[in-house]
Amino acid sequence: MTAEQPTGKQTGHDHERAGTPKRRAPVVSTKGPVLSLVINTWRVSLLFIFWHFVSALVWLRNHIRLPAWLGGDGREVGVRLWTIAWLAFVWVLLWGTVSWANVIGGVVLAIAVLTLLPLPRVPVEGRIHPLSVAQLLFRLVFDFFKSSLQIGWMAIRPGRPPLGAVVRVRVAIKSDMVLTLAVDYLNLVPGTMVLEIDHRRRMLYVHVFDVRSEKKVRAFYDQVAYVERMFIKAFERDSEWHPSPYHGIDEDFHHVRPIQPVDGAQSADIPTTTPPASHSDRGEK
Q1: pLDDT tens across the length of the chain (285 residues)
Q2: Partner of 241 for a Cys bridge, out of 25, 48, 138, 236, CB 3.0 to 4.6 A?
């Protein structure tokens, strides 16, 4: 028998045995010179447009002043633009047809309303934290269904009717806008209704549907404390909140005088210039 003679062709396995590196096929571009020129021109054009667009924005910011009614800072401008967009959206809904004429007419009408019939300036303070707002909305939906079931059971269960009362509670929310949102939260949840707001003392007078036991009263105070804590966390954290230039404009306009303490009054009823340390004041009911 004769030994096999080695041939010039070797497989990839033989190359790995021999330790010789396997050559890779050269990368050949499938793009022709014309297509490559078009792609490079498109990229340069995008950079050129973006650069001049940013330069134009900077020039407009330095040379053009916004109208006084639109606001003095970015947050007020954002609120005004949102108001214009909302009024235009309502105008389109009233017409019932989405068209350029209705959209442009709604924007023009919204600008006319804000210019000719200006509303009092609303202080915009603090920052919005989306995660805390989402948590607050989730808790609102949960409290809504839970309170609805409780009130429904109260309506059909046998026995004496529930005992309602007006409960006074103090909150440490500083901004009027955030305080309004917190009051709306309490009004949306069945079983509680804010009847009066003491603006100076940050005191709420809330009608509670059922206060027959100390447990139910404590549950109401816990709910208000949670709402207060979450609204502060979502909108006006102490590290980010700063008073607006228009904060307190109502008191200056209406010449509201500070409340003088009455002889024999409790210290809890005397208003202070700083918010209380505790989240809620468990007052009388």
Answers
A1: 444 455 544 555 555 555 555 666 555 556 677 788 888 888 888 888 989 888 888 887 777 766 666 666 666 777 788 889 999 999 999 999 889 999 999 999 999 988 888 777 666 677 888 999 999 999 999 998 988 898 888 888 888 888 889 999 999 888 888 888 999 999 988 889 999 998 888 899 999 988 888 898 999 999 999 999 999 999 888 777 766 665 554 444 334 344 455 455 444 444 443 444 444 444 444
A2: 236
Q: What span, in angstroms and rounded, lies between the C-alpha atoms of 168 and 266?
A: 15
Among 148, 85, 84, which Cα is nearest to 119's? Answer: 84
- Tokens matching residue 261: 């303490």
Strand partners, 117: none
Tokens 């096999």 — which residue? 4
